[in-house]
């Protein structure tokens, strides 16, 4: 389990590192290349800086939305892929937190110019991060509910026999 967590944390830090640590060099280089390409084309680093210093309007202006919408999906998939290649993800529906994370992260980016919280826009970075985290939590809950329901049905079948 520690090996899987290490790969996940490296993938969170930089998509592709987890794959490289797993010995999947080609896949790791592809993820690194995609991360770099999307980062540059979307002006992601500049948007992060403006978001973190509170200049959300400037972050929205410099963000290239046609590129940044790819980032949550690549990011989430790289994390899932590194975890799976490290031996994780064998449980039923283990992929759901990453799928929900990608989906809600992308929704956060898409709606970042219209969602207002406490009288201010959150912007593509903050609302995207909230979507990623919220999606992971929601996906984990859905996975747990599905698995518990499946397990309870299996127990009823086993007990009836």
TrEMBL record:
Membrane-spanning ranges: 65-83, 95-119, 125-146
Domain of life: Bacteria
Keyword list, A-Z: Membrane, Transmembrane, Transmembrane helix
Keyword Membrane applies: yes
Name under which the protein is recorded: Uncharacterized protein
Organism field: Sporomusa termitida
């Amino acid at each position: 389990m520690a090996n899987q967590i290490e790969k996940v944390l490296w993938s969170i830090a930089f998509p592709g590192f987890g794959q490289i640590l797993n010995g999947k060099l080609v896949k790791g280089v592809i993820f690194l290349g995609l991360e770099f390409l999307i980062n540059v084309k979307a002006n992601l680093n500049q948007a992060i800086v403006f978001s973190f210093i509170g200049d959300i309007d400037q972050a929205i202006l410099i963000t290239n939305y046609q590129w940044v919408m790819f980032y949550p999906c690549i990011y989430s998939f790289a994390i899932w892929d590194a975890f799976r290649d490290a031996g994780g993800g064998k449980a039923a529906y283990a992929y759901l937190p990453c799928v929900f994370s990608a989906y809600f992260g992308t929704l956060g980016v898409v709606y970042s110019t219209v969602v207002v919280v406490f009288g201010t826009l959150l912007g593509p970075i903050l609302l995207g991060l909230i979507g990623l985290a919220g999606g992971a939590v929601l996906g984990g809950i859905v996975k747990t509910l599905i698995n518990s329901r499946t397990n309870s049905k299996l127990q009823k079948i086993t007990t009836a026999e």
